[in-house]
Amino acid sequence: MMKPQDILVLLKLVAMPREWSFNALALELGMSPSEGRCCLLLITPG
């Protein structure tokens, strides 16, 4: 089940430049890089 932060991560990725990192994503969203990575693992197929 998706959490609100998962949707926030998705929206931020759409708005970020093509080149991004977990550290940059975390800094922009005020979360740890591991939180951002966990969100992406939950929302990506595979």
Description of the molecule:
By secondary structure, this protein is mostly helical. The chain has one domain (1-13, 22-46). 67% of the residues lie in helices and 0% in strands. It is built from 3 helices and no strands. Helix 1 packs across helix 3 and helix 2 crosses helix 3 (33-43). The protein is globular, with a radius of gyration of 10 Å.
Keywords:
mainly alpha; single chain; 3 helices; 46 residues
Q: How many distinct beta strands?
A: 0
Q: Give the N-to-C terminal Cα separation.
A: 15 Å
Strand % is under 5%
The residue fraction in helices comes out at 55-70%
Give the overall shape, derived from the CA principal axes. globular
The average pLDDT score comes to 85
Biggest sheet, open or closed, and with what strands and sense? none
Q: Give the helix/strand class.
A: mainly alpha
Q: What is the alpha-carbon Rg in Å?
A: 10 Å
* Tally of domains: 1
Q: Regions with pLDDT < 50 over 5+ consecutive residues?
A: none
